[in-house]
Every structure is written in structure tokens, then in C-alpha cells.
Amino acid sequence: MNRKNHIKLLQGILFFLFCSCLAIGQNFKPVANFDKIQAEINKTAESIKTIKSNFVQEKQLSFLNVPVKSEGLFRYKKENQLRWEYTEPFKYLILFNGNEIVIKDGSNTNVFDAGSNALFKQINDLMLGAVKGDLGKNKDFAFSLNESSGQYQLLLKPTNANMKKYVAAVEIYFEKADLAVSSIKIIESTGDFTKITFNDRKFNEPIDEKTFTSN
Amino acid sequence: MRKLLLLISWCILAVSCSTQKSLETGNNSAVSTFIPVFGPNAVEAIFRGTIDVNGKHFSGIFVFKKVSENLFRAVLMSEVGMTLLDMSFTPKDFTVNYCIEPLSKKGLFKLLYHDFKLALDEPGIHQLKRKRNRENVSKTILFRKKDSRDFYYFADGIVTKILSKSIYNNTEIQFESVNGGKAEKIKIQHKPVKLRIELTRIS
Q: N or C, which end of chain B is more exposed by having fewer CB within 10 Å?
């Protein structure tokens, strides 16, 4: 595989990760006042300076009896620092720090410049947009907002041809109690999906700068 | 006396031939054709894996399923859950159900099909022919799959190594840390093709 294809593969993986950094529920129906609720969600996102959370990831394949399960740590610090770390059943680290993307797998560390490539920049902008709450301005997705008794569901369908190759839809769930993302379901074109649930979420607690380095 | 010597020589020759025949086609009941990927009575296996090819390093999660006696499914996905490659195969052929564009290479499909088939498809006992193990590893018994250049090394009744030889490339699969009929690690090494796959069991 040449470097170009390697980068393409990484782009796909990072887009998938972006979806994972956003947020499953029951009996959802369209909200009546989209603009008002979106404004509330955006306002909450604006007020969040840091996030500490654990996550559980479950990949459901149609032919498997049980999902493929992994778990780890999620750390975010405004404006543009993110640590996505798998701790079980394997160690794997992805860091976003400004324009730098670091992937560490055992003794192998790869560093990428998010600004060096248009799609990297797009993914970086999308991730930050999601956390900052201005995702609705992005033209690469068609949005709809639904609600149940306890949750809002933001349904994203990619309009960008490149993203459509990887993902059919993303369902992001916000708890009505705190208007912050609690889980996410990423549905692939094959119908298989990945569900990520954020547990033990803590907002605006101090996070050390070292958290966003791979050492 | 001369007749007696001739008779003795004939007997020795007959016994030698008989011994050789026993070694070549000998009783296979001492070994099982069980390959320690799925484990006893299991049809699903999940591994964390790395692929090193031509100086490049990739990692991901490998999922294997024995769908039926002669049908297998193999899925490679990234750590973050994205499906990269989904392949169904039988001992005779394979079908790519899904593959992301950067990985969509016929050569890669063929190599992975060869490796997955070799690692998952258990030869029937009648297909194995016992061979002399020149590697002189104690307690290791060597068999060759009939009509092929695939060699199976058994220790304590379980496959510990498979060696597949071809004109252009040799493939060696090692099963390590076998507990309860399941290998915790599987290493696949190609030579001279610079491809190495290492799998560590998740479940």
C-alpha cells in the first residue's frame, strides 16, 4: 500500500472517529422547535471547556452472536485537544492536539499534520464543530432532530460523496437532563453498526496538558 | 547356506519396506486435525492483529466465523470500529462482501484468502499423510496434506505450525500459547514476500 492509500485509509478511520466523538434511544419523533433546541444544545456545548469520560464501544456485525466490545478513556479540552484511548482489551491511542494527529500502537507512533490535507482539515473542523456546538453550520451533512421522553437524537446523513463511502448515518444522543452527548450509533452502508456509550461524564474539570501528549 | 542368507536378506528387505510404509501412511489416530483458532465447539473468534508489509505497519481487529462446514467469514475492522474488509470464502473460492477503497487490491485479497483458508480450514484426517520430520523437534509429528505442498506439524495432538510452500512464496503459520484448544497468539509469516501478520486473541 502506498502512502496515498495509507492516508486515504487513515482519513476513513478518522472520519469514523469523528462520528464517535459525537453521541441511543427509543420512540423518537421530530422535534417541533428545532431552532430553539439546537440553540440550547449549542449554548451548552459552548459552556463546556473540558470533558472527562469513559467509553464502551460495541461493534455489531450481522453474522456475529455477540458484539465486538472494547473500552477506554475520552478526554477533551477546548479549543482543539482530544485524547481517545483504548485500554481494554488492547492498548491504542489517538491524540488530536492543534493541527497534530498522533496515533500510538505499542511502540509504533505515527504523527500526521491535520492541515496538510484537505480532508484531514475537514475532519478536524468537524470534530471541533461537534464539540463546540456549531455542527449545524456544516454543509456536508443533512440534519434532523428528534426527541423521546429523556433524550434528543441528532440524525446526520452525509451528503459528501467521500463520507458516504464509509458511513450511511450517524445517530447522536443527548440527555435532556444536561444537553450533552451520552451515546452515538454509527451505521455503515452494510447495515452493521458501532455503538459508543459515554459513562461517568465529568464536565469542566481541570485536565493536565500532559494528557494530550503520547509520552 | 546361500539359500538361508538369501531368505534372511529377503526378510530384512520385507520388514524395511513394511516399516517405511507404516511411517508414510501410518495410523493418524494419534493426532487431531483440530486447528486451534476457534476452540472446541466454537464457531467465532476475535483477535487484535497487526500487519507489517513492505515496511508499513497497520493494526486492527480480525473477526472469524465458521458459518458452515465449508463456509467461513473473515472481517477486518479498525480499532474505532470501521469495517475495512469483509470476505466470505470456501476451500475453493472467495467473495469480497465489502472493502474500503484504499485496501481494494486483488493481490491483497488473494494473499489474505490463502492465509485465512490455511489457518481456518481443517483438513480431514484422510487427507493427511505422515512424513518424516527432519527438523528433529521432539514430540512433533509431521503430516503432509495430500495433493498439496501444505505441511502440518502436530504436538500433543494439536496443530502447532502449518507450512505452505509454493514456487514464489512460502507461508508459515504458528499457533502459540494454546490453552483449552485455543491459541492465544497466531503468527503468519511470508517469505520472501515481506508480509507478517500477528494475531492476539480477544475472545
A: N
Gap between the Cα atoms of B178 and A198, Å rounded: 35
Tell me whether residues A186 and B46 touch, CB distance under 8 A. Answer: no
Cis? peptide before B123, omega within 30° of 0: no
Give the list of residues 6+ apart from residue B14 with CB closer than 8 angstroms, or none.
none
* Nearest-neighbour CA in chain B from A25: distance (Å): 20
Q: Does residue B88 sit at the A interface (CB-CB below 8 Å)?
A: no
Cβ-defined contact of B83 to A188 (cutoff 8 Å): yes
How confident is residue A2, by pLDDT bands cut at 50, 70 and 90?
Answer: low
- Residue B50 contacts A where some CB pair is shorter than 8 Å: yes
CA of B101 vs chain A CAs: smallest distance (Å)? 8
Q: Which residue blocks in chain B are alpha helix, DSSP H?
A: 2-25, 106-120
- Rounded CA gap, B142 and B160, in Å? 10
pTM of the model: 0.83
- The helix (run of H) or strand (run of E) holding residue A55 is strand A50-60
pLDDT tens for A175-185 read: 999 988 899 89
Does residue B109 surpass a pLDDT of 60?
yes
Q: Which of A59, A64, A70 sits opposite B65 (nearest CB)?
A: A64
Mutant choice from B82, B112, B202 vs A, greatest count of A C-beta within 10 A: B82
User: Do B97 and A70 count as a contact with CB atoms less than 8 A apart?
Assistant: no
Q: In 3D, which of A113, A107, A76 has the Cα closest to residue A198?
A: A76
How long a stretch of residues is chain A?
215
Min Cα–Cα distance to chain B from A88, Å: 10
Distance of alpha carbon A7 from alpha carbon B89, whole angstroms: 29
> Cell for B118?
490455511
Q: Which of A103, A5, A9, A137 is nearest to B82 (CA)?
A: A9
Residues B152-164 pLDDT 10s: 998 888 899 999 9
Q: Is B39 strand, coil or helix?
A: coil
